[in-house]
Amino acid sequence: MIITTHKNADFDGFAACVAASLIYEDAIIVLEGEPQQNLKEFLNIYDIPYEKENDFIKNYQEEIKNHNFEKVVIVDTADINRIPEFIKSLIEQGIEVDIYDHHPELKEQNIKGNNYSKEVGSATTLVVQKLLESKIVLPDTYETLFLIAIHEDTGNFVFSTTTPLDHQISAELLKGGARIEEVEEFVSLEMTKEQKELFDKLYNNVQELTLEEITIHIAYSEINKFIGGLNVITHKLFETLTPDVLFVVVKMGKSIYIVARSRIEEIDLNKILSLFGGGGHKKAGSAKTKGLRIQEVIDKIKKELKSSFVPVLKAKHIMSSPVRTILSFETVERAHELMFQTGHSGLPVISDNKLVGIVTKKDIEKAMKHGLKNAPVKAIMSTNLKVADVETSLNQVRRIMAEADIGRIPVLKDGILVGIITRTDLLRATNGVFNFSLSPILEEKYKSQNLKKEMEKILPTSILNLLKLIGLYGNELGLNVYVVGGFVRDLLLAINSKSNGTKSIPYDIDVVVEGDGLLFGKYVAKQLRAKYIEHPKFHTCSIFYRNGENKIIRIDIATARTEYYEEAGELPKVELSTIKKDLYRRDFSINAMAIKLNSGSFGILMDFFNCKKDLEEGKIRILYPLSFIEDPTRILRAIRFEQRFGFEIEPNTLTKLEEAVEKGYLEKVTGMRIREELEKILEEPEPMKAVKRMGKLKIIFHLFEKTYYSPTLEKDLEKLFDVKGYFKANLPSYLNKVRLFHLVLDVLLQYTPEESLKKISERYGLPKDFIKNLMQVKKVYSEISKDLNDKEKILKLSYFYEKTNGFQNEQLIFLAVKLPEELLEKYYEYLRKIEKLKLSITGKDLLKKGYEGVQIKAKLEEIKKKLLNGEIQPGEEKNLI
């Protein structure tokens, strides 16, 4: 739901939006243009959320494109030409509209919808009236905002459009806690003659101070009598002098009045003004004191400024500069040399004077190992950059680095690289207190992601209890134990979809142990009295446990490990590691999360790489640039996960995928590993989506030599899945001993040269007769194509018998794919009839009648054809011998 008002919102338009957002749940306020200056000042002090039009369009592109909004609420205008263009378009598409405007008789009204407009002095009055009826308790700041808006639009209740309702709502707001003293500051009023004279005195009596890089002005004066509106005078001085902080100190009679305003975070005005019995907020406040001279007040302010000033360290204060960089076209070998010479563990990558990526020592060493020393660094750099501006605070830099788990962050000024901050820089700046293990930032993050309650709601009791037992066994052996990978991914998807999870959570569980996985596996198997199988080469084992429901649950237990690949496409070598490194080696971020199982910390989600965010946003993302080069089968897995979940391969990952495909890394993988991944794709509910995606990305061409994915091929593949569905529903016996992988290859390879077919068959371990069978079907289809005009001939069921007698089931199905639609029904009729056809005579009967050798076979064939064509009925066979 969207709430908006006219361009360049004033107090009334914005306040009415805020009030409406409290009535309409899950609504977002969208503003076009810059707010009016006095409103902007108010928002500088009070952080009230809203979206700028351009930001909203960027963040909600799909929703806008699909008109995926329940309603639009428009306040303080009913003129369609005064609202954001994209909202105008939504309204024209028929989205429901609620309108709250005042002075409907005086204004343009050209938006059709539910019109709640009335003749009152302020649109805020209308919306707040409805809000108060709902008995919602309002924060003082909101009540103050609403009061200011009503005052401004009624001219402090002197405009002729003011109504009793405006007075009534204002009174209710004051009762609730609205701060009347702030009205005069923000409502634009002409200063009186006395106020102007005081303004001039203050303007000419200003002390200027500089604290670090902060400009502070103290304006002071003394008058004999009280003059109201010091807030208004202060506001105008603040706008005129434009310091970072302004104190106005005026002695009126026996009392001294102090008003202060600030634009920065380093100084807390509330704390300073409390010395004089006043207060307010960090950026605005006032006080009144007696018994002091003006200079004493000023001296006290200065002293407190120095003692309470907390400098905010920024990126520019701690960054290392200048930065050692490398150009995007320079080689991996050159980067390796630079890192060796300088000791740097990462280098920013520059192209056309712009930062385009970053390359780490780990990336470079892997690339060198894979023989990529002459490749440009842009081929292996990470483009998923986290950067800071020179003005970014130290706390924010710490948070970015901790949450993204990165060791360095480039610093930009106006888009140009000017420095870099490393963990060492942070440690120096914080006297070594910044801990990159489980820091308070990460600890807070993990606490907020404890999934224990969700697991108890969603998981089947047998699975939940088993996981708790595994965690308990980990405690008994003093080992940290985690469930990882697809189980965690599917659990989070079930939580997000609010399903009960029973169907979506697999009964195969992957467990990682920080310690000896084999020792732990044996212990678990013994406790559960389950079957245990060991794979010592990979430090893994499998346990097969029969639960109370008599279901077999497979538990794969691995030692936390780091995999490295000696050659691209080979199976990995394994080193012992920790859970964090174990997760980093995984294929995609959505599969790189773990849940701790140990008693006492059961259910804590370990998400080191912002994986949960990718899962929520539907992104497939690799964790490091060489991922597809080290294991090219991940290319096929990326397609499978993308299509299974309806996700999208994010741009950087897609670029790396396309580069790996183009450079022939799929060709380096054994056919058996490729086949395994392809068969998994074909097991998906809608495999054709993945096949199309592979065709579009030219993956098919690199999997099967001289095989070109074309619209004709795609049409045949789509028909294959339709035909297979027909066989499953109507002719299921023909699916016996049929492998979908072979059927798909029949279609894909039908135009591939025979020499290439031999290589493909050998690579993928196809049956010896695969090529022969494929050629047979192609030959028969060619013959049928020539006979299409001879309707009398081809519409006889015996025709199909003559062509397909001796065919295997896979051949029969492939032929159905190739046949034109007008022949399919006749072909299916033939298959149904031949499946049930049984002769009432045998060769022995023919022998008795004097038939010999080939005559017997020929006669039986003749009788079969007549039965198929309906020329004789079952049981009449004896009449023909």
From TrEMBL:
<dbReference type="GO" id="GO:0008033">
    <property type="term" value="P:tRNA processing"/>
</dbReference>
<keyword id="KW-0129">CBS domain</keyword>
<comment type="similarity">
    <text>Belongs to the tRNA nucleotidyltransferase/poly(A) polymerase family.</text>
</comment>
<feature type="domain" description="CBS">
    <location>
        <begin position="319"/>
        <end position="377"/>
    </location>
</feature>
<dbReference type="InterPro" id="IPR000644">
    <property type="entry name" value="CBS_dom"/>
</dbReference>
<dbReference type="GO" id="GO:0000166">
    <property type="term" value="F:nucleotide binding"/>
</dbReference>
<dbReference type="InterPro" id="IPR046342">
    <property type="entry name" value="CBS_dom_sf"/>
</dbReference>
<keyword id="KW-0819">tRNA processing</keyword>
<dbReference type="Pfam" id="PF00571">
    <property type="entry name" value="CBS"/>
</dbReference>
<dbReference type="InterPro" id="IPR043519">
    <property type="entry name" value="NT_sf"/>
</dbReference>
<dbReference type="GO" id="GO:0016779">
    <property type="term" value="F:nucleotidyltransferase activity"/>
</dbReference>
<dbReference type="InterPro" id="IPR002646">
    <property type="entry name" value="PolA_pol_head_dom"/>
</dbReference>
<keyword id="KW-0460">Magnesium</keyword>
<dbReference type="InterPro" id="IPR032828">
    <property type="entry name" value="PolyA_RNA-bd"/>
</dbReference>
<keyword id="KW-0479">Metal-binding</keyword>
<protein>
    <recommendedName>
        <fullName>CBS domain-containing protein</fullName>
    </recommendedName>
</protein>
<dbReference type="InterPro" id="IPR038763">
    <property type="entry name" value="DHH_sf"/>
</dbReference>
<dbReference type="InterPro" id="IPR052390">
    <property type="entry name" value="tRNA_nt/polyA_polymerase"/>
</dbReference>
<keyword id="KW-0547">Nucleotide-binding</keyword>
<feature type="domain" description="CBS">
    <location>
        <begin position="381"/>
        <end position="438"/>
    </location>
</feature>
<keyword id="KW-0808">Transferase</keyword>
<dbReference type="Pfam" id="PF01368">
    <property type="entry name" value="DHH"/>
</dbReference>
<dbReference type="Pfam" id="PF12627">
    <property type="entry name" value="PolyA_pol_RNAbd"/>
</dbReference>
<dbReference type="GO" id="GO:0046872">
    <property type="term" value="F:metal ion binding"/>
</dbReference>
<keyword id="KW-0548">Nucleotidyltransferase</keyword>
<dbReference type="InterPro" id="IPR001667">
    <property type="entry name" value="DDH_dom"/>
</dbReference>
<keyword id="KW-0694">RNA-binding</keyword>
<dbReference type="Pfam" id="PF01743">
    <property type="entry name" value="PolyA_pol"/>
</dbReference>
<dbReference type="GO" id="GO:0000049">
    <property type="term" value="F:tRNA binding"/>
</dbReference>
<keyword id="KW-0820">tRNA-binding</keyword>
